[in-house]
Request: fold
Amino acid sequence: MPGPRTYTAHATAPIGSGMCCLVKGQVAFAGSGPGDPDLLTLKVARALQEADVILFDRLVSAEILELAGPQALLEDVGKEGFGPSMSQPEICARMVAHARSGKKVLRLKSGDPTIFGRLDEELTACEEAGVAYQIMPGITAASAAVAGIGQSLTQRGRNSSVRFLTGHDMKGFADQDWAALARPGEVAAIYMGKKSARFVQGRLIMHGASRATPVTLVENASRSNQRVLETTLDRLPTDLAEARFDGPALTFLGLAPRQTVAALSDLNMELA
Reply:
């Protein structure tokens, strides 16, 4: 049996003088974070200035796109769950074509590209086309949303793990380990979960989850129009319908906003 292999990490594009140095003919996959431009990494901010072409997703905020360099060609290749979308093969084809034409290509995804960002499919397209790439991580929506309610994703004595779930996949509503999720003290962050709220509620209750389990939804996490819905598993679909969320929302199963944060939010609304 062969022994373990070790590798020395190398950036796929040279980095010097603190700059990203995007390379012509290569693709940089970057996370734009949850929407607040102040939460961009310095590396991604520099890449926005250097890119010749920026292929961006639907949830990338306008404030972040405004940071693009004047030379950049902006192409909207966004997808919407259960809605109008550019096909994945077309996105890959455009990305590869721009790189092969010698452009510095920035593939800009919301949040972190490695979390529910279809990154593997696009990396495979680059590899099959012989196009080099690099990956620039970003702050994922769960991190921004949990900060917005003054909570932590993990807590000693409560949960030693947290699950990142998707509300739907290519076949429809995504199936999960509902029995495990229904246990007291479990915490999960559900991405793209608005349309699957009733499905999730039914599966969890069917597997023994308490109807009083706290559920919190954070819409437009980190942005100036962030809204928080505090509810329970029992009232989740009803309260969500009444809230009329129309922006991207992150659902926390097993977490409620910290009381001081909720009180401050109420005060700010009264003063607005």
